[in-house]
Amino acid sequence: MHKPNLITLIDALLPQTQCTKCTYQGCKPYAKAIAEGEAINKCPPGGEETIKALATLLDRPVIPLEAVKPIPAQVAYIKEGQCIGCTKCIQACPVDAIVGAAKLMHTVIATECTGCELCVIPCPVDCIEMLPLPIDITPLTGDSAHTKPQRIARQLKRDHARNRFEFRHKRLARLEKQKQLEHQARLQRLAEDGIVKPLANKQTISDKVKIKQITSTLTIEQKRLKIDAAMAQVALKKAEKQLQQYNTPELQQQVELLKVKVAETERALINNQ
Ligand code: SF4
Ligand code: SF4
Ligand code: SF4
Questions:
Q1: Residue 203: strand pairing partners
Q2: What is the CATH number of domain 74-132?
Q3: Pocket perturbation via mutation, ligand 1, pick of 18, 74, 141 by most ligand atoms within 8 A of CB
Q4: Could you say which architecture CATH assigns to the domain 3-58?
Q5: Which atom of ligand 2 is closest in space to residue 112's alpha carbon?
């Protein structure tokens, strides 16, 4: 079978929550890895049904799910009274299912939420909880469609979630490019004003210090570092809690990364006192 078609066929069997619990950055990257020989049992939201479907497609044996248990159909809920409007959850959501503006309360669009849990750890005030998906909303997870109409509805919703995920990626790539161009233009202006060396030359440490002095003050920097350190601590606690619950390799990796982040933020704080 031609490889891109095989990847598409595998991806069509995956839940499209884009939760990264398979240790890949979404369902399509995991589909690509499976096509290249990766194990078919790494998707907790897919559960047994997905393993069986992949085994049939690829003519491989059915094996048990790697995670301790499958992830059920669920939806994120923001306790709005506690939300401080920091937008961290919006940045984490892979399918743009959260609405809200900076410093204003945020809300989850339940019908768009894939239940991926990616917004839970970044929330600095721990005001997002995962609830069972209401029965009137079509689930994405495996073992959740038992009749033909249910299977069709689920496939349509998976296609919709995939489209939203891909659309978001394209939008973020466009914004990143724009940001880089604006940064270059800002440096160019500073170079023209003689504040830093021209762009053609490599920036020295003193150039970077000058730019920092122009764009921020020490007090603001210290505040930011304090917030970063506190948020890293909260994120680590939540990741450790999720690790206890699901024990996936991806969560283990996340906990290790967050431990490093906590150490880094604390070091940065001490260095800036
Ligand atoms: S649903 Fe999550 S674990 Fe399953 S393939 Fe997609 S990203 Fe990976
Ligand atoms: S709202 Fe949270 S759980 Fe729902 S899709 Fe977005 S990040 Fe995932
Ligand atoms: S991360 Fe938490 S506090 Fe921040 S906007 Fe989202 S729900 Fe509100």
A1: none
A2: 3.30.70.20
A3: 18
A4: Orthogonal Bundle (1.10)
A5: 5
